[in-house]
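Researcher: I'm preparing a figure for a lab meeting and need a structural model of a single chain. I don't have an experimental structure, so a prediction will have to do for now. The sequence is pasted below. Please return the structure as tokens so I can convert it later.
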Amino acid sequence: MVERQLRRRGIGDERVLAAMAAVPRERFVPAAQQRRAYSDSALPIGAGQTISQPWIVAAICQALALRGGERVLEVGSGSGYSAAVLARLAAAVIGVERHESLAAQAQHTLAELGIGNVELLVGDGSRGLPERAPFEAIAVHATAPAPPRALLGQLADDGRLVAPIAAEGIDLLTVFRRRGEELLREEIGPCRFVPLIGEEGYAPE
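Model: Understood. Here is the structure written out token by token.
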């Protein structure tokens, strides 16, 4: 996975590559999907949600440019896989997942693997956690209809937010960096995610 799917496709951050190699992805997918755990594709994890393909997880982590001391807010934690990778790159990860069943299973898996610097909460991740802001990094694992204002407002100075943003016919993985009152924006590339459901996202179907 690391050599064929990640390094060959432009992931060069050695800390990210090491974290991806260290986290057992098969532990974060249902039993029926474990033989496909390392395939270069998203996989269903229940509740209509998916675990992102490895390259997407690595691209988000690389774009966050984590150095080890950050507090990361993760929106849409799903199975907990991305949180487990982020936990190896940052000091603490606070994840918000709207599906209680997924959050419970993710917490169980993280505990079994001895990953203690991840806290998972159930709620509307599109609103972020204003009472615990600011965050040095924010990772969003669902497509927002527009740059997420509430989350951008919780970004620390010089912090980065990575999120897929809906565009015409496709989603664009985008990194935002705060410089004082200014927000710098750079598109990483096309992607496909489930929609961000919540007050600052899409209405539930």
